[in-house]
Amino acid sequence: MSLNETLIEQKDALLAAHQADDRERLELLLPELRAADIAEILEQIAEEQDHQTVFGLLDRLPLDRRAHIIGYLPEDLQEELAREMSDESLLSVFEEMSADERADLFNLLDEDRREGLLRRMARQEREDLKRLASYEEGTAGSIMTSDYVAIPSGMTVSQAMMRVRQTAPDAETVYQLYVVDPEGKLAGTLSLRQLMVARPGAQVDDLMIKDVISVPVDEEQEEVARLVARYDMLAVPVTDHEERLIGIITHDDAMDVAEEEATEDMHKGMSIGKIEGGLRSASLFDLYRKRVVWLVLLVFANIFSGAGIAYFEETIEAYIALVFFLPLLVDSGGNAGSQAATLMVRGMATGDVRSRDWAKLLGREVAVAIGLGLTMALAVSVVGIFRAGTEIAMVVAMSMVLIVIVGSLIGMLLPFILNRIGWDPATASAPLVTSIADASGVLIYFAIATAVLGLPGG
Amino acid sequence: MSLNETLIEQKDALLAAHQADDRERLELLLPELRAADIAEILEQIAEEQDHQTVFGLLDRLPLDRRAHIIGYLPEDLQEELAREMSDESLLSVFEEMSADERADLFNLLDEDRREGLLRRMARQEREDLKRLASYEEGTAGSIMTSDYVAIPSGMTVSQAMMRVRQTAPDAETVYQLYVVDPEGKLAGTLSLRQLMVARPGAQVDDLMIKDVISVPVDEEQEEVARLVARYDMLAVPVTDHEERLIGIITHDDAMDVAEEEATEDMHKGMSIGKIEGGLRSASLFDLYRKRVVWLVLLVFANIFSGAGIAYFEETIEAYIALVFFLPLLVDSGGNAGSQAATLMVRGMATGDVRSRDWAKLLGREVAVAIGLGLTMALAVSVVGIFRAGTEIAMVVAMSMVLIVIVGSLIGMLLPFILNRIGWDPATASAPLVTSIADASGVLIYFAIATAVLGLPGG
Questions:
Q1: What is the annotated quaternary arrangement, including any partners (chains A, B) (predicted)?
Q2: Any chain A CB within 8 A of the CB of B437?
Q3: For A219, B73, B127, B384, which has the most beta carbons within 10 A of its beta carbon?
Q4: Residues 6+ apart with CB under 8 A from A318
């Protein structure tokens, strides 16, 4: 929390110095701040003040820092900033940005502007930008960078070392090197550490690891993050369909993807669609839209619960006390089911659970659910006896056991079923599981009640 | 998915060769496999076959690979393996393991064994192991390693380069270097890349960045992961209370922590306690225990909903059709509230939302919730008119608007309130929010019904 307070202080100091046009003070303050922190301060200023102040502050920074910080800003700010800038300044910012961030900024511009900018670039730069900007969002291509160190096959260690030194200022990482054959195909990889301890005259081809882990350019970014985490990689190379090396994805970008995907999965677990940008910057309509779809669908799904209740209307009229326990029972089934679904969905996302494990996990879930059901039946019968007498308490306790077991099994199996039919298992959200568990809970409860208590006059 | 199939094939091939004692084939198969993959294959074999096969296969590997793979195995397997091994073999495995993994394995042993092993170690090794093993789980100390490259202050670039080459075989990373003063305090940091492009005679102290991001040894591991992600770090240095450098945490370990914490938060969002190890390896009793606590607590919390219903018993008896809509209405409030809670809890975990943002976010949530409530009221009134006539449909629609707004606000505010009183905001789980939203939903619904429809004979 001290960091946040520090940031607030730094923001206030920056603003004061900027507004007083106190250049000396700004020259003391600005170099002290890290890019991620300045970006956060600017985002905050954009929320509290106006965007012009943000752009004014950015103008006070040297070009390379400015370019670096722009990469950290939220998309809407980047977009507006680019609109304010002349083609000249935008092109000079482009030059200082890393290839992947340049492509992301480029994709925020409208088509006319993009065309105009491309025309003013050197051929190689233009081709590189066009290519990086062309990959579909969510794929390996969309997060890779072309700033990597490629070593032509056939070099000696000392030649390769020279190449590393030459490329060092521009490359995103110089610590993992990629050996390519004359056709541009990825032939192997070696680390700078290996290179450093090797004999200068040794052949790179003899040192390199030939069995390289790489990803195709259209691989899902989620899968890329999983690979980087699994094999503790510094970067993963990306290849095109002819297995030519075309980019790398570094560990920090993989970590950002993993965080983004975890957030998306958590939201999905509550039937919330994918929200672009942060919670604070998302538009109200977007927040509404991403939440309302499933909520309304589930209103209709809940008709089944209502129909179940209608079917047992006579029982309910005869034993009105049954209604007291209705929310409690259906909630319990929904809760146990949501727990089971969450365990499965997250297990599948991290690779801890695979679809072929379902039968084994089903057996385990049955055992756990019986335990849960019995414990909760005990708890509810204490409540039941005090509120409604032994007979109804017995009905409620029996229902609880069954409802919890059925709810748990629905929650556990639904992700596997969805996966089997080609859907995202995360669609088995808590609200969906709850609605299905509710309908079954209503049927179980009133069926048991009708059987045990008998129909009025029956 | 192809990876999994490949792994299954490799597992079958390994098992066949092992059982036939076909050494030639094993010598072809084993070097091809990566440590993370062998570990996963062994875990699978442990589940399907017996542990002896696993240990037998491990014995066929050279010591350094064996040590590396053991670090990837789940704790229960590591524990059993260590029990099977003699002190001699365990000590030689220890020597080949990285410092952090050695400490983790050491912590799985019982006290007598630990004492015995420590007595047989050299003093420096012993002190290092004892220190690393002593940090509380979940802190920076528990995940750091002591295998880093420290450069004494005052060295030249070429001296530092020599030091890097000497340390290279043992250090976890040689790409980020830490400069320490004579008292062992962290004076600065520089990257190998900086060192490589610098003049050999230059002073390291002139090159290094003095404003180092570091973490105290008792910092929460979650915070460490957040820092590494925020500043795109390769490793973060860890200091003791005298600001002496005592370890580093590398990006791959930070990424593992981030994944682990995201899993924990998702589970917490469904009121599931922290499960040690994977879902498949957790004991049934542990799974039961981690789920039952809140489920039972919520049974008692649901008494409030029951009490609300009891209070309005006369209204319900008079208009039994009201019961049809009860699960639908309380579910809707719970769903909207769970969505709001999840958005806030995850936002707080990633740093997108801060506690001081609550007022601004409250305003936004009110606006979104009104939109959600009106849309869902429209949906439910379509259902209502067909099932129960216009009068009840009107009651249901009015209730829906209010219930969704109240549910959303409960879900949104609860994480902030919990945070304020020093609890983990993630305690505002979907089941808890649902239970609270349920009780308010019951009151809102039947109060509106009583007001609009009137009491029987009233």
A1: Homodimer.
A2: no
A3: B384
A4: A453, A455, A456
pLDDT digits (tens, 9 = 90+) for A4-22: 678 888 888 888 898 888 8
Q: Does A279 touch chain B (CB under 8 A)?
A: yes
DSSP H or E segment with residue B191 = strand B186-191
Cα separation, A277 vs A282, whole angstroms: 6
Domains of chain B: 2-138 (1.25.60.10), 150-264 (3.10.580.10), 302-453 (1.10.357.20)
CB B310 within 8 A of CB A386: no
| Residue found under tokens 């409530």 | B373
| Whole-angstrom distance, CA of residue B418 vs CA of residue B420 | 5
Query: Is B291 in Cβ contact with A336 (below 8 Å)?
Result: yes
Shortest distance between the Cα of B120 and any Cα of chain A, in A, equals 32
Q: Are A100 and A145 in contact (CB under 8 A)?
A: yes
The residue count for chain B: 458
For residue A323, give how far its alpha carbon lies from the nearest alpha carbon of chain B (Å).
Answer: 7
CA trace torsion A376, A382, A386, A387 (10° rounding): 0
Q: How far is CA B249 from CA A241, B96, B212, B245, in A?
A: 37, 19, 14, 12
What does the pLDDT look like over A63-90, one tens digit per residue? 999 999 999 998 888 999 999 899 999 9
Question: Is the minimum CB–CB distance between A381 and chain B shorter than 8 Å?
Answer: no
Bridge partners of A236, per DSSP, are A249
**How many whole angstroms separate alpha carbon B65 and alpha carbon B85?**
16
Written as six digits, the tokens of B344 are 């806030």
| Closest by Cβ to A196, choosing from B168, B231, B350 | B168
The pLDDT of residue A3 is above 60: no
Segment-wise mean pLDDT, segments of 10 residues, chain B, 458 residues:
69 89 88 89 85 89 92 90 92 92 93 93 92 93 93 96 88 93 96 92 95 95 94 95 95 94 90 81 87 89 85 89 89 92 90 84 92 93 80 92 96 94 88 91 93 73
Instruction: Tell me the Cα Rg of chain A.
Output: 30
Closest chain B residue to the Cα of A31, Cα to Cα: B211
ipTM of this complex: 0.88
On whether any CB of chain A is under 8 Å from the CB of B94, the answer is no
pLDDT band at residue A458 using 50, 70 and 90 as cut-offs:
very low
Residue A454, sorted as left (phi over 0), alpha (psi -120 to 50) or beta, turns out to be left
Band of residue A2 on the pLDDT scale cut at 50, 70, 90: very low
